[in-house]
Amino acid sequence: MYGDTANKLILDAKRSANLSEIPLYQSNLINLIIKETNELNKDAQYLAELHQLKQEENSEELTEEDEKISQCQEFVTHLSMRRNKRCLLAYEKLRADKLVEFTWLNIDPISESDESNATTGTAAGTSTSGGGNSKTQNIPYSDSIYNNYTTKVALDNLSHAEQDFLKNYQDLLVDYKSNFPDIDLSGDLEPPTNIFIDVRVLKDGGEVQTEYGCFNLIKDSQFYVRKSDVERLIQQGYLEEI
């Protein structure tokens, strides 16, 4: 029945709305919906031509009931096409919004190879250093304010158009942030209650340099630091506020 495939797509979008990651792009469902919409478009054109032909040949014999039947057929066909279009747009809009949300959290997306390497490294007991070579995308967000946010994006789950959109939006955001070098536009919107806080290290992470000096991220150690210096580390799961 027309509309069933679009309904499956909407159900998939509804399930993924509150997930912390973007699921696999439903290319098969989308192709089926596009195919169905094209078929409906052909049906609409055929019905319009048939109605016009009947009017030209038997304009006097057409009853009001025949007119209503013809108009109803065309209306239902166009309505089904419109519904398919709205379902497709809603699905794409939801995923685009989640990509925008993810970009503002300032995390790097991961690919399948990155994820497998991270899993292998964890199994081998390797530790990640705190230098510039660490990959923030392999670090889960632990802060409770990010529970309802999109904190993980696998590039393999995105379509080619979505990958291009993500890259272009990241470039746009970097360019926009460069106009405000003294402001962390992607930081927490909640104002801090204290400038300095006590934190506990959840896992080893190497040396961290701040304006007030440097300290080593050694598991279970505690520090009294400025919140703005370690806010990103808290978000990345290295530290927790005591």
Helix and strand layout, with pairings?
Layout: H1 4-16, H2 27-57, H3 64-104, H4 112-123, H5 160-177, E1 196-201, E2 206-210, E3 213-217, E4 222-226, H6 227-236, E5 239-241
Antiparallel strand pairs: 1-4, 1-5, 2-3
Notable characteristics:
242 residues, mainly alpha, three-stranded antiparallel sheet, two-stranded antiparallel ribbon, 5 strands
Describe the overall structure.
52% of the residues lie in helices and 10% in strands. It is rod-shaped, with a radius of gyration of 27 Å. With 242 residues, the protein is mostly helical. The chain is built from six helices and five strands. A hairpin with a 2-residue loop joins strand 2 and strand 3. Residues 118-146 have low confidence and may be disordered. The chain has helices spanning 4-16, 27-57, 64-104, 112-123, 160-177, 227-236; strands spanning 196-201, 206-210, 213-217, 222-226, 239-241. The chain has a three-stranded antiparallel β-sheet with strand order 4-1-5, covered by helices on one side. Helix 1 packs antiparallel against helix 2.
Shape: rod-shaped
Give the helix level as a range of percent. Answer: 40-55%
DSSP helical segment count: 6
Question: What proportion of the residues form beta strands (DSSP E)?
Answer: 5-15%
Mean pLDDT: 78
- Kindly report the spatial arrangement of strands forming the biggest sheet: 4-1-5
Cα distance, first to last residue? 57 Å
How would you sum up the major sheet? 3 strands, antiparallel
Number of strands: 5
Q: From the alpha-carbon coordinates, what is the Rg to the nearest angstrom?
A: 27 Å
Structural category: mainly alpha
